[in-house]
Request: fold
Amino acid sequence: MASTVLLGLSSPALAQSGAPEGSAAPAETIVVTGSRIARPDLQQASPIAVIGSQELKLSGKINVEAIINDLPQLIPSTTAASNNPGGGVSTADLRGLGSTRTLVLVNGRRYVSYDSNQVVDLNTIPASLIDQVQVVTGGRSAIYGSDAIAGVINFVMKQNFEGVEANANYRINQAGDGGTFNTNLLLGGNFADERGNATFYIDYTKRDGVLQAGRSYTKQAYTDDGDGGLAAGGSGSIPGTRFAIGGVQRKFESDGSYSAYTSSTDAYNYAPDNYLQVPQKRILLSTQTHYEVSDHLTVYAEGQFINNRVKNRLASTPFTGTVELDNDSSFLSTSSQVLLQGLDSDGDGYTTASIYRRMNEVGPRISSVDNTAYRTVIGAQGAIADHWNYDGYYSYARTKSVETQTGNVSRSRVEQALATTYDSDGNLVCSDTSNGCVPLNIFGAGNISDAAAAFIAIPAKNVSTITEQVANLSITNGNLFDLGAGPAGIAIGAEYRSEHGSYDPDYALSSGDVVGFNAGEGLSGGYNVKELFAEIDVPLLADMPLVHKLEFNGAYRFSRYSTAAKSVSTYSAGLVYAPIQDITLRGQYSRAVRAPTVADLYSGQSEDYPTANDPCENAAALTNANLTSSCVAAGVPSSLLGTSLNGGSTQIQSYSGGNSDLGVETSDTWTGGVILQPRLLPRLTMTVDYYQIKIADYISTPGTANLIAACYGTAANGWTPYDSSACSLLPRNANSYAIEGAQNLLANTGGLKTRGVDFEARYSVPLNFGILGAKTGKLDFRISGTRLIQYDLNPLAAIPELTQKCAGKFGIYCGNPYSKLRLSNRVTYSSGPLTLSLTHRHLSSVKDDDDTTQYSVEKIKAYNLFDLGAQIEVTKNFGWTIGMNNIFNKKPPILGDNQEQSNTYPSTYDVYGRAFFVNASVKF
Reply:
């Protein structure tokens, strides 16, 4: 059994104590993530983590995102629990800087993206084929190019495999749902007197969906009750239709009559129909081969095919908008007819109203995504002469994603079906009978007929593609010269990369006629970049008094983009200094960049519903003169200030879109740390690393919540507007006066600064007793974590007062919780064929980031989870792994108005409860 490599980002990268069975013995020099130069040891100036294959198996987690999100340095991004927002993908987010700033590699090369955002879907990486995961933090653009601002995650796959290995995995929640099955087969063999190897891998995964109705704490949408507690809440778009005229909110009853609308009692509970875990089916094929023609030429190739199918499910469509209501419709009661006729300002028989109708009769909204990706790599490497080596390759990757949507309705058909009249026989009919129009009865819950539901329902479909091509040539020399402290190494090379993406929505989506899933315009565009790079590593001094080792490294990359980014330089420099063998100091400076993605540059406008609070609904709008003035100037009648303009909903309709004039964002990263490996305690290793990252020209939307703060001010500045021009980006509905259609477009809008400390301690204790026939055993202890000191995000560079200090915060500005202390601890006992492992994960408490609103839950307490795993090597060729995640059945923190989804932050906190897993592995 391969030895365990303990997880920890700030640890020095240490070689495994033995090569896994079936793989080739390690070479004398090793290329590690963060450098192209092969070195005889793995210590480098930047912190690096290594997660071994045994730890991956002991985690019991089948998808890669669930494994790496346990790292303290990652903020959970999109996961299996992400339904709205979601998209059916899983992504990695180092330091919480965003998934577009974390570069994901496979075998040191760029992998296949899932869409024009150029982000890798971790669902496309098979966990069972991974030999180890290497994580380097800090800007690495000088080595790998754009996107490596937060760092690099490199998945190293099993190489030179001989034999057959079959695995079957199953995981199920204690509640009896969410079953996830995975099976995979690995075949490999050497040929031509072991000068070549070919490996084939096939993997199948099926994950069952879980609805929010399946948990007591997620089946009801909660809202703040105004008295410090939580109450049943939901959406202001209700099955019976909420309607607003002149700012007065009313609702229709099932008999066509009306009554006053009260958000605290009438809001619609949308929660039960939403997925808590999105279902998935995935099949993955992978093959790789290499053949050593001579010392000067080894040819290699690899290819992947992935088909990943995922569904998202939301409650039925909330139709909102201003429409004309037939005020003598037979669907209405007499009292409703009288009301609407009295509000008919022009006497044409139709009354203008803003309606908020939940289209339950049409059914839930379901998005089915069929994602097909393939990738191929061909290359050659070998020796040139006198320690000079080369490696050149070409890769092609393409992803096509087809999304089919049901549950949408057509806005134009709703409006057509509401415009009714009477025929000669006195029957209510559509004024325009084209397309087989059927009158639509929205005047009460359950009143829409099957025929009318079929008329307004509209399926929608969009197709997106992303194609990437990379040609790379590097020349290295690991023994360029020697100053007496060891051989110096150098790497030089060139790279060409092109990206082209498209998003092709059907007419309903692109025209904006669809209501349900968010409408959006299409895109088609791309760019290319030509790059030259160089890297050097020089041992300066060694084996001298107070200088056991002193090494310098440096890197430079010049990039020429075909976009407005134009010419960009990135560079880095670092030192490794060990005064004595027991202590190593390391430090690194890096200038990194992120070029705008295809989506950043070319995407059209798309609809979104972010969480934000309208200050004109706050009580302060009645008492603060500044806020009162701003709200009235925006068109809100003074009589409606402090009322629920948006019907109790905390989501505001917004529009976002690309910008072809975007430039690159740049970052400066400083890291400095110490590694302690005392000879007096040879089994102890301790590391501490400080990091500081500053990003300028941050590519982002300003955020609807920040636009509102710019327009209206905040409680902290007495509701004095920071920039009144932002108010033009926040239009209001003419009847309800709620904010609708906020313009939240991409720009090089602000900046970000974060700093903190990574730390780890590892210690092993040999035991002179064992079990299951073994005479000895071993205990391994590991404590690793991150202390977040600062995380400041300035969404609008022109308004530094809006900088959000997110360390220790969560909410509408900061998003996912940024705990100041994140820990991942493990105790492992191994003896003979048995390995037992107990894992503890800790998140410190966080506070809400919105000072303008007093929420019922202003603080989330510290959160702790424990997992237990056991691996048993029954025979040399057969093994079991069993275990339990969340062994104490810890529930997530439950929130009201400041939640993300599912009444909590489901990617950060466990929403499923206790789960069990089992794995069986056969080798021959």
